[in-house]
Amino acid sequence: MSKREQFPARARIDQENEFPGDIADRVYSDEFLAGLGKKFNLNLTIEVRRELHRMAQIYIANLRLGTDDSWDRTQRRRYRQLKSAASRFAKTIKAFEDDDIASHLFMTVRVMENEALLGDKLISAQRNMPHNRTIYPHIMNLIDLIGEAAECKVKEFIFPRGPKGNPGLHSMTMHAIALWQVDFGRRFTVDYHKGSGLTDAFQFMRALIDPLDDVSDQQIITAMRHAIKLWRDGEKRRSSRPKSRSQN
Predict the structure, then answer these.
(1) Which residues lie closer than 8 Å to 12 by C-beta, 6 or more apart?
(2) pLDDT tens digits for 175-228?
(3) End-to-end CA gap in the chain
(4) What whole-number distance in Å separates Cα of residue 42 and Cα of residue 140?
(5) d(CA 19, CA 35)
(6) Which of 89, 53, 64 is nearest to 10 (CA)?
(7) Do residue 75 and residue 154 come from a single domain?
(8) Whole-number Å distance between alpha carbons of 242 and 126
């Protein structure tokens, strides 16, 4: 079976027997990323550049999978299992939420001479809390974060269906909204009523996609609207989550 027969739905740039990572390195070159940063006034750190390369890989790889959603179902099942495991673990640990276990965590760190765990960042995040109370809420926050991330990944593998569905674009946009909102500190918005191209976030997506594939403005808008909805749903869950006693 030829490469084209194996992967009938391919990006425009994906025409040879290249690995997605090699294509991403070639297309998202240092020159391209420098131009991207200048156009949108972005600070493209090494971590951000790596994420942009990964986003291009994700686009190409997801498009190669075509309409066969068996892999998507497998990923949803895996992340649901992770979400369930994190929830069970959190429930068990919260049953021990008292000063004794928090103090013992602190003393264990001291005994193991691993006080690097109590670095400035961890302590500064809990400035109003005695040092013997810093580790416990930090652990709980990490467990909650794992569960939240798993839930987000489940939804990331539920793609908008229809004749214009593009799972590569959907996955890429989910990563883009996190970069735009968290790393760049900007609102990821799209103008639904006056047409496309009226927000920096849309133009950013357009700039990322154009070197890779032929995608319509409406497809980008659809992917952005879906990503924005999932992002807002996550914000609502985070704001409604009850605080543990250690955080009060």
Answers:
(1) 212, 213, 214
(2) 999 999 989 999 999 876 655 557 999 999 999 999 999 998 888 988 898 889
(3) 61
(4) 33
(5) 25
(6) 64
(7) yes
(8) 17
**118 and 236 in a common domain:** no
Closest CA relative to residue 155, chosen from 233, 242, 40: 233
The model carries a pTM of 0.63
What is the amino acid identity at position 151? E
pLDDT tens digit string along 82-140? 988 988 888 887 777 665 666 666 666 656 555 555 555 554 544 444 455 566 777 78
Question: What distance in Å separates the CA atoms of residue 112 and residue 100, rounded to the nearest whole number?
Answer: 18
* Nearest-angstrom CA–CA distance, 69 and 221: 23
Residue type, 206: R
**Residues, the chain:** 248
pLDDT at 111: 62
Q: In whole angstroms, how large is the CA radius of gyration of the chain?
A: 22
Q: Quick one: tokens of 232? A: 């807002």
Last residue in a domain, options 143, 158, 173: 158
